[in-house]
Amino acid sequence: MLNDILEHYPEPPFPLDYSAVTDGLETINRAIREMGLAMPPATEIIRMDEDGLPSIHPPNLRPTRKIISLLGKLPKYMREDGGEWKSAHAQEVNAQLDGLNRVRLDRLEGPALANHLQEALDLANAINGLRFSLVLPMIINGKILLFLAKKSGVKNALEGDLVGGLEYKTVEINKALKRLARTVMSDGEVRDALAGWPAKEVWNTIKRTDKGREFRNEFLHFLERYGDRAPKAKLPFSAVSWSDEPGMVLSLLAAMVQPSESEYASLSQVDNHSDSPFLRFRDQVANRLPGPLCRLFLRSLENYRSAHIMREDTLYVTERTYAAARHAALEAGRRFAAEGLMTEQGQVLFLTLREMYAALQGRLDPEEVRKRVDRRKKARPRAEVIWRGENLISESFADDILSGQAGSPGQARGTVKVISGPEGFSNLKPGDVLVCRFTDPTWTPLFEIVSAVVSDTGGSLSHAAIVAREYGIPAVLGTRIATKQLRVGDKVLVDGDRGMVRVEKAWYPESGKD
């Protein structure tokens, strides 16, 4: 479970994040308890002290009497297709979100602003509750499907094989990014701008000039549709969305347009999302199973694919909901800074949700607000060590071999680039091996240019595994120590079949990581 927590929360939550993080984790815990496993409250798994320093305390999972009924639920789980989301909830939730986003936050009194923010969080909790009540059955269905695939003689099948060629939210967004990249490739001024300056500064330059009119219009339309996507999206208040920091998208595009024209021919087929590998996989398994099992496999596979679309849709809707809450929190921070309670609006992150509400409602002494913000700000540098440091393995890996989970099959050789965040995306070159602490949907367009992916966290169900499978590149995930042990410039062999990375030629650069 530690790996799962670090994958979803790769940075330590700030005090303001804490309630929303534990509420989200508790929705997962409730679904797990329904399946017959004992889970402590989320506030015991992720704890936070008075200095705002969080720590992880993974539980020991143990079965309860409910697990006896799990076998009886398997037929229901294999029928779950996520249809309840689209038929009964999606339209209503999106209408509520549109209503929240129409509110002029600067016109709300303090108590009304607090209520508005809580309404957004309540909506996120409702979405997450529905999401995980459907996603966990989907995961069990996936395990059964992979078992049937193995029984049919298809070896090494992974979750990514089950959703190949499927049109879901991350695929939709990645296609839109590829269309933007195609526009960049056709406009010399914009391409030169991306190549000539740090990507974070390009957006401000483009906004002030006439260059790249088509690109500007497409870019703004892209942000209007998908701008609430955010790295580290499960951290509701400390995450930063693409709309709030467009430089992150420009950094992605700078990496995507580096290949030569011949290497980037795939842009002309940007909308061709082939399902041929999936069809071969499906038919190979189905043709080897006896009649009843074949029919069960095909029905359950279609349900799994439909449920995966629901999983992706609800993830992005949750991102939109958190963005609405985040904007309200920043408005509160702006007011607190104007009143002298903190030096800048972002320091609102050092208040807990309850404290922020109390301050907005005039129930928390201003001097107490200043003291808590100052104390937690000074303590924050210790948060990373507490959150991750005690969970890392410090010793070197043996014989230059690093082990992890097989996320996507195949082998690839390349040069290591250790990337810590969006600011480093533009440093990637075609054929590099992407080494990172975590990946999320915002990283997956990079899979177009890298030869392999290696990460500290993640597993076969992660976005990295599923999208790497789609792009046909090997992925080794959940290594825990890749970013600590692999160095920029190392020449490595990534073996996605065995979940192994071998250093073939080590390099010790004078500088640090990208």
Automatic annotation (TrEMBL):
Protein origin, superkingdom: Bacteria
Q: Name one GO molecular function term.
A: transferase activity, transferring phosphorus-containing groups
> For the PEP-utilising enzyme mobile domain, which residue ranges apply?
429-499
Q: Which Pfam families match?
A: PEP-utilizers (PF00391)
Question: What InterPro entries does the record tag this protein with?
Answer: PEP-util_enz_mobile_dom, PEP_Utilizing_Enz, Phosphohistidine_dom_sf
Question: What name does the UniProt record give this protein?
Answer: PEP-utilizing enzyme
| Organism of origin | Paenibacillus aurantius
